[in-house]
Structure formats: C-alpha cells, structure tokens
Design brief:
The chain is 63% helix and 0% strand. The chain has 70 residues and is an all-alpha fold. Helix 1 packs antiparallel against helix 2 (39-62).
C-alpha cells in the first residue's frame, strides 16, 4: 500500500479551492446537525456537500490549462 494512501486528506487534494471550502463547511454543518439531531439541517448540509462536488466536476470540465497535465 502506498504511503500517501494513509493520509485521509489525500482524497481532497484534487479539489479546487472553492469547492474544497464549500465541502468543508458542509461537512462541519453535517456533523453539527447529526449531534444536534436536526434532520432538516443534516439534509441541507448533505445537499451543500453534493453541490460542492458537482461544482468541482463542472470546474474540471471547463478548466483550460495551458500547460500539459502534471
């Protein structure tokens, strides 16, 4: 198993900055909603997380990088 696979944040290194921030806020809201047992807020925060993932997907589709892929 590779050394980098032990890092739990390694999965998020491919996200752009704005989707990463939105994703982190959604995760914090989701954790707080679960602890407070507010199911409406939990559903809203799950929607925020899915919006961040979708926004990152759209950014990857429209991103025009002038240099070759790393």
């Amino acid at each position: 198993m590779a050394e980098s696979s032990w890092n739990p944040l390694a999965h998020f290194k491919e996200l752009h900055l704005l989707p990463r921030v939105i994703f982190a806020l959604g995760c914090l809201l989701f954790g707080g909603a679960i602890l407070a047992r507010e199911w409406a807020l939990a559903l809203f925060s799950a929607a925020v997380i899915f919006v961040a993932v979708g926004f990152n997907f759209i950014l990857n589709l429209t991103w025009m990088d002038p240099s070759p892929p790393y």
